[in-house]
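#structure-requests
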Amino acid sequence: MTSNKLEPLEKLNVFSFKGTQMRTFHITWLTFFVCFFGWFGLAPLMPSIRADLGLSKSQVGNTIIAAVSATIFARLIIGKLCDTFGPRKTYTGLLLVGAVPVMLVGLAESYTTFLLFRLAIGVIGASFVITQFHTSMMFGPKIKGTANAVAGGWGNLGGGITNMLMPVIFSVIVGFGYTNAQAWRYAMVFPGVLLLVMAWLYFRYTKDTPAGNFDEIDRAKKTSSKTDWSLLADWRIWSLALAYAVCFGMEITFDGIAALHFTDTFSLSQSSAGFLAGIFGFMNLFARALGGIAADKVSQKYGMRGKGLLLAGLLIFEGIGIILFAYSGSLTMAIVSMLGFALFLKMANGTTYAITPFINEKNAGMVSGIVGAGGNVGGMLFGFLFKSESITYVEAFQYIGYVVIAVAALVLITRFTTKGSTEDEEVLDTPLVAQS
């Protein structure tokens, strides 16, 4: 009989830092949090960057889409790397590589060079896949959804904090006598240094699994040599990728255009619009975790089928909320409907990754990467709607709302039960990491 120290935990105590499992949990969500400073650090500085480089509206839109697009491919690759080398080495390598363009983006002197740096920085977005993969390694099946949702939600908070802190760093640099054109360049050194610090912490203080690193246990030998490409024919994976495209994809899209929408539609000041947009992001403090907790509770009684029905229901309400937001005739109605669809959207994020780890445990990293990439595909496609000169923001929200409901219908008819199980059978008996 093995010690619990070598097994995934069956309880999540967020106030505990004891043991490999909880130490890894806290380091991985904090690392994901820091990655947002590198990934989105340029976003709140774009007014100064636009003026410095003379960027047009279309060019600004292209740089945003480029950052999201690069993440799509990075997430697909990073999932396989997690399966092969383990999350510890993969995360450390990603942080070291990602820190380079973040610190050097200040060397950009033209639209083209800035666009290329944005593409390179977008690779950091793959950090989400490693965070979810690593958290799945540390917790047992009954609590895995909750742990993934909490780690993902707290990490996503980095997006909101970044929008608040980077302008402060920019202002401090200007206060020392530097110009705006110089300040945005120097400001990006800060997140680059943070990424290097987290690379050291991750390599030094985490383990791939509770039983040890991949090069110390049998799992590495079983998973590193061969990928089961037949998983690409599994509709459940693509159903989850579509679901994540319309929940997380909508989240990163809304983060980028919310302030502009509030400013243009309701004539708010930039600071007021930014505050309202910030509320949307701060709901990650609890909403994503709530989705994971609900999914774990539902699964105890209704199994994977229950999780699928929960996800479909959340997406339906998200779609309805987005449509109501589009038709809002007053600021009050817009705020209420935004809070409503934000709750269901972020809960859907958590529920999606309460299902993902159980789809194919032998290739969990690759499955996580495909589903995660789906979120960025959604963000990229939605971004084109808001970039279009012929479609208003209101119309774009309407179209997205209908798309979300359509995807909910597809999720509703997807059977997430594993092969050989009955429809109502509990399928959470096999943890992601075999207990020895």
